[in-house]
Model the fold of this input.
Amino acid sequence: MTPARFSAARRRAVAVSGDASLVTGPLSGYHHESYVVPLLDGTKVKFREPRRSVLWFDRRYFESEDALLRSLSGRVERVPAVLASEGGLSVQTFIEGRTLAASHAPGRRVPAVILCQIVALFGQLARITPGTLGAERRRGARNHSEDGDSGGFLEWLTVFAEQQVYEGNRAEFGSLYRALGVPDDAFDRLRKHVAGLRKRPFCLLHADLHRKNLIVDPQQRLWTIDWELALFGDPLYDLATHLHLMRYPVRQERRMVQAWCAAVEEVREGSSYGYASDLQRLLAFKRVQSLFTDVIRVALSLGDAPGPGRPVLRAAARRLQEVLAAAAEPLGLENVPSRARIVAELARWHREREAP
Done:
């Protein structure tokens, strides 16, 4: 890569450090390209900018993540501080530590000291209600549903998944969806499966609380990063998203649900109303949502080179079989394709895509 093609974030990071060898990055991250620079006083800052041509699989609610982070100061513990923001380029404090994913991979038990801090975070979010933040919302997000209308909120998310993720990419991936057995009326089936949500008072949701967005510092304090998908809505949706992404062991998941209910009810009565049945509906929505996004992600991971190798195809087929099996019940799928069939369909789709 020639210097002229370096991103603005990297150029700024190098200019501040005065030595390109001191710049760390790009860091792993889907939505942003980020670089870390040490300052003379020993602290570190992170320069970041949005990645170009990124496919967005979730609605964006706030105009600016930086403005949201500034609004959260003093209301949510341990979030990055924004030092500067201009023209899409952001400078934030860098959190020293390790992601929870690095020390405790999905499926593994989370230490109690960390679990308690996650529960506390949910309680802090429950205190932040619509209209109490200075961060500006995007035009299409201003009146997505009335406060407490959990069903309307989920329909707003469903419409985005249907129109932007599925229909918006159907020309390229529609044949692959059909080959994998995804029915054309998938979203009609999903709506029937999740109908009947109870009303719960809305609050701020992070909406992407997984192990890579949770940083544990050397003092075992938990920091929460990457707030670009935050929005106001049904608090139970935030819990469902968290459980779906975290993949807690079964017993710890039950403890998390119980602790979450106690935490949000202490802050706002009714926040966990109907959770026993509605949590299962929202988890079903997350499984179907993941099916539509993961088919695209997995297919694109095959790359542009002709004929991806069998190990690559088998790994991709394993992932797709998992998400198809998870979404089978809400979509009413009678059968999930075998891995051999998925491998064949992925290879076919890739050949047709790369054909001149």
The CA atoms of residues 68 and 174 lie 36 Å apart. Strands lie at 32-38, 44-50, 82-86, 89-93, 98-99, 203-205, 214-216, 222-224, 231-233. The chain has twelve helices and nine strands.
